[in-house]
Design a protein that fits this description.
The complex is a heterodimer of chains A (255) and B (461).
Chain A (H helix, E strand, L loop, with lengths): L1 E4 L31 H18 L5 H8 L6 E5 L5 H6 L1 H4 L4 H8 L7 E6 L4 H21 L7 E5 L5 H9 L3 E7 L10 E7 L10 E7 L6 H18 L4 H4 L9
Parallel strand pairs in A: 2-4, 3-4, 3-5
Antiparallel strand pairs in A: 5-6, 6-7
Helix pairs in contact in A: 6-8
Chain B lengths: L1 E5 L2 E5 L2 H8 L4 H5 L7 H12 L3 H6 L9 H8 L3 H4 L7 H9 L5 H6 L6 H9 L3 H10 L4 E2 L3 E2 L6 E4 L8 H13 L6 E4 L6 H17 L6 E3 L3 H9 L7 E4 L4 H6 L4 H14 L9 E5 L3 H4 L8 H13 L5 E4 L12 H17 L4 E3 L11 H14 L3 E4 L4 E2 L4 E2 L3 H11 L5 H9 L13 H7 L3 E4 L1
Parallel strand pairs in B: 5-6, 5-12, 6-7, 8-9, 9-10, 10-11
Antiparallel strand pairs in B: 1-2, 3-4, 13-14
Helix pairs in contact in B: 1-3, 5-17, 7-9, 9-17, 9-18, 10-18, 10-19, 13-15, 17-18, 18-19, 19-20
Classes of the chains: A alpha/beta (255), B alpha/beta (461).
Chain lengths: 255, 461
């Protein structure tokens, strides 16, 4: 039995005592029947952050520099969506590699390891801020566990399923794509991680496992790295991913 | 085979399906599906061609084969040939002109609800301007009842939507109480659960039901779980007022939602049998939205607006209390910007009303669409003028569970004020009785304090 005990109402905003129970925009007051100026502009600012995140650009140069610490080749790739406007209207193009990228991948020696991919998705900001921090924790675990790693891939204008084509070109056995999630008003820097065993073009989302809301105020990279490492090991040993893998009790159940 | 020649150029359309798609006002979803007109001229050529198509043609050429699709079968089998006689000689263009006639009033429009197929409604909407869609919809009146009366002219309701990302009962209750004190919730108190399990859903059902009984609120509750979850709860005798389900316009798309007409009917009959309505027994709440068939890869080459109208045939079979087009939720690959969202919302509201449905609209957008609150303000005002039955009421427009923006409690008060609209009559009486609103529909001074003083604490399970 949960219970809300009333406190003495504060003058002007009798419902302010309810604020502690939810992040929803309650008890914001009214001028006439409209939302007061401060609250109205606070909302606009949150939306502005979300919009800026959608149009943010992946800092591929800086990311490539930072990725050098892992001593793995870094491949720069691009989807068939030529602009953000097209990316938003044609999700199908964001799932396909452009010709240059396909050629770049074809030049690589086939690798049976796992491929780690960074893609901008709907918030490059999320990748710029969270991806390397996560990899710093994840890659040492993988190396310690003697998991073979394919080249690291940076994809511009990419959607989740583009990882399938990349993995297939590289001959990878498993893919993990770190991708910017659709920004909300409360967070514009959420990163998602999608894991796919035996990735190949044409797979549906139910063959993947997802860890979402990775950001300092959401799921911290420390926890995300543990979850991902656990999932990767499970996927490799059971040779599956997706709904079937999720059914297994484990680290995921505490989410 | 349909064709039209413009300046020596012949435009051919192989089927009614193709003609409808090419005549559709531009939207990204139809481009994504590869169905839209290739040029401005081709689109208008298709519209001119469509205007000359006889309504009877729609009875002879199904856009999705009768044998393959139970929604098509439902449409054809429930068509009212007797009522159709009044308009049977008309073309699509003639229907538009007829709908706009002053003589074509509320009663006459009511008489053709079952004479029009969804495809006819969709077709005529494609050659109508936004103004036409509003003018005709305003003439329609669709009234439904459960514990109050929704859809009366001059009235306008809201679904109070106090969602919480983890279904925390106190978090839900906090938003719910705030909403009630803003006069929101006459359409229903409807919560999208974060977890779709019978146990989790039952907790929320009990929470709303208890609150509703404690304050004797003349409204109905709904937890928007999958229909199989609701059915399980109904069969266990849980206090379910409304049974919810998302629906679409093809059998295949519905299958992707895990539903069929027979499953819907089973849940409808079960919910009816609880007999919880006091004013009437409209027990279903449906949500729809353009793009769902394409998203499920189940559109059969039919444009997204025609698919949407077909979903209304599904809804109509079960005499719903509320039908809600969640217009901007699906994202920019289907409806790119404020212009497309606005157009789609007016089409959906018009088609639904014309077919006799209690249409509401979730006036909304996501952060990757080219839209903002100004677009929603415009659409809200247009739909208010058009006589939309209900909209959503969400704290500060920001749904922290579904991560999208819809209309706020404040927005509903704005609309009631500028258009002189009132809540559902029974709910309005309750608001007055509780001292929450005054006779002019404004929040009463000291109203919240008065209500909160009536109880020492808000008990929540």
């Amino acid at each position: 039995m949960a219970k809300i005990i009333k406190h003495k109402p504060s003058p002007g905003e009798p419902l302010s005592f309810l604020k502690e129970f939810t992040q929803a925009r309650i008890a914001i007051g009214a001028t006439g029947t409209s939302i007061p100026t401060t609250q109205s502009l606070a909302f606009k600012l949150a939306h502005a952050h979300a919009r800026d995140a959608v149009y943010s650009v992946m800092d591929t140069e800086l990311l490539a520099d930072e990725l050098m610490q892992f001593n793995l080749p870094v491949l720069h790739l691009h989807s068939q969506a030529i602009s953000r406007e097209q990316y938003l209207q044609r999700p199908d193009l964001g799932r396909l590699l452009d010709e240059l990228s396909v050629n770049r991948l074809a030049d690589q020696i086939e690798n049976k390891g796992i491929v780690l991919i960074l893609a901008d998705g709907l918030s490059a900001t999320a990748i710029n801020q969270n991806a390397v921090e996560l990899l710093k924790l994840l890659i040492p675990k993988l190396i310690a566990a003697k998991v073979k790693l394919a080249p690291l891939c940076l994809v511009v204008q990419g959607r989740v399923a583009i990882g399938d084509g990349i993995a297939a070109e590289l001959g990878a056995s498993l893919s993990v794509i770190l991708i910017g999630e659709r920004p909300g008003l409360s967070a514009a820097d959420s990163m998602g991680a999608y894991l796919t065993y035996a990735p190949k073009p044409g797979l549906r989302d139910d063959s993947r496992n997802c860890i979402s809301n990775i950001r300092p105020e959401g799921l911290p990279v420390t926890v995300a790295a543990d979850k991902l490492f656990y999932l990767i090991q499970e996927a490799l040993s059971r040779k599956i991913s997706g709904v079937a893998l999720k059914d297994n009790e484990g680290l995921l159940s505490d989410k | 085979m349909y064709q039209h020649t413009i300046l020596g150029k012949v435009y051919r359309f192989d089927s009614l399906r193709e003609l409808l798609a090419k005549a559709s006002p531009h939207r990204t979803g139809d481009v994504l599906a590869g169905l839209s007109a290739g040029s401005y001229e081709e689109r208008v050529a298709a519209q001119i061609t469509l205007a000359d198509v006889l309504l009877t043609d729609f009875l002879n050429e199904a856009v999705i084969p009768y044998e393959e699709d139970e929604v098509t079968r439902l449409i054809i089998d429930t068509h009212d040939a007797e009522a159709f006689k009044l308009i049977s000689s008309l073309t699509v263009g003639g229907l538009r002109d007829w709908l706009l006639l002053d003589e074509t009033d509320t009663l006459i429009l009511k008489s053709i609800e079952n004479a029009l197929t969804p495809e006819m409604a969709a077709a005529v909407s494609k050659i109508m301007r936004n103004q036409d869609l509003i003018a005709v919809a305003k003439k329609c009146e669709v009234v439904t009842k459960f514990r109050n009366t929704i859809g009366l002219k001059g009235h306008f309701a809201t679904r109070l939507q106090p969602n919480h990302p983890t279904d925390d009962p106190r978090g839900i209750a906090a938003s719910l109480i705030e909403g009630l004190l803003y006069g929101s919730g006459d359409a229903c108190i409807g919560i999208n659960p974060a977890t779709d399990s019978p146990a989790a859903v039952l907790k929320i059902v009990m929470l709303i039901d208890q609150l509703r009984e404690q304050f004797e609120i003349p409204t109905q509750s709904c937890v928007l779980s999958h229909i199989t979850t609701t059915l399980e709860l109904v069969n266990k005798g849980a206090p379910i007022d409304l049974c919810f389900q998302s629906i679409a316009g093809t059998q295949k798309a519905n299958a992707s939602f895990g539903i069929s007409l027979s499953l819907l009917d089973e849940a409808y009959q079960a919910t009816l049998s609880l007999n919880r309505g006091t004013m009437g027994n409209n027990v279903m709440y449906f949500e729809t939205g353009q793009g769902s068939c394409l998203s499920a890869n189940a559109h059969y080459g039919v444009d997204q607006q025609t698919c949407e109208a077909r979903a209304y045939a599904v809804a109509k079979k079960f005499k719903p209390l509320l039908v809600n087009s969640v217009v901007g939720f699906i994202g920019p690959e289907y409806l790119y910007d404020g212009k497309q969202i606005t157009r789609a919302a007016l089409e959906d509201h018009f088609c639904g009303k014309l077919l006799g449905l209690p249409m509401g609209v979730d006036i909304c957008y996501t952060n990757h669409a080219e839209a903002d609150q100004d677009d929603m303000d415009n659409l809200l005002t247009l739909l208010g003028v058009a006589g939309c039955n209900f909209i959503m009421g969400i704290p500060g427009s920001d749904d922290i569970m579904l991560n999208y923006q819809s209309t706020s409690f404040h927005d509903a008060l704005y609309l009631r004020k500028v258009l002189g609209l009132k809540p559902a009559p029974e709910f309005e009486a309750w608001l007055l009785r509780q001292g929450i609103m005054d006779e002019n529909g404004n929040p009463a001074k000291g109203g919240p304090e008065a209500l909160l003083n009536k109880t020492n604490s808000l008990w929540l399970k």
